[in-house]
Amino acid sequence: MTKDSTKTANPTDVVADYNGYDYKKIFWEDADRKYEDMADRLAIRKLLPAHMDKFVDIAGGYGRLADEYIPRAKSATLFDYSKTELKQAQDLYGDKLHTKAGDIYDLPFSDDSFDALMMVRATHHFKDMQKVSDQLYRVLKPGGIAVIEVANKKTLPKMFRYWLKKSDINPFSRDIAHLKDLNSDGFYNYHPKYIEEVFKKSGFTIEKVLSVSNFRSAKLKKLFGTKNLVRLEKGAQSLLAPIRFAPSIYYKLKK
Prior knowledge:
globular; 11 strands; alpha/beta
């Protein structure tokens, strides 16, 4: 997915190296994440431009969402750190999708290369979102659109864990949350106000916000079923956007 510094990074700086890891099978196919997948797709369909010339999916893994943007783009590129994921994407989509490996903090694209881009389920790997945002802004053409999903720090479950003293991470603080208990590297979550300041500092204008995966819960899936949760999700994405409720917050940004 990414390195945790610039070109001079060494292998120990990699936050999430998915080389040799079957992300497609282990994380998505074997783990009952159909609801999360559909929630992402609902948001993308609302936010991505209907027609694009040059498009890039940043940190797009094996191209899980490629069938959402390939029909809209004259030329689509998938960028990721993992060559394993990129090989899977090539096997799935062939010449319909260009692939490129590299470092998120030093994107291997010229300035003003794309008129639209997307980055979904990746920000939790990034320690320095300002650098990432600046890179995304750089490779986007003036007037271009970026659709970016952000791992939200300020969710209701995290609030309750904090209030009940089960977590010392304050969801109301704008400080970056580094969740080290999840694995050896941990993940990063961001407060909406913090990340919106990051985008604005890069130069982006925020055009639209959606609250996504609002019902991400194993208990809710068991109780209501995926189809019913997806129906609820359709209306909730816009309705709950003002309070930035969900674990995933989607931003439509314009350069």
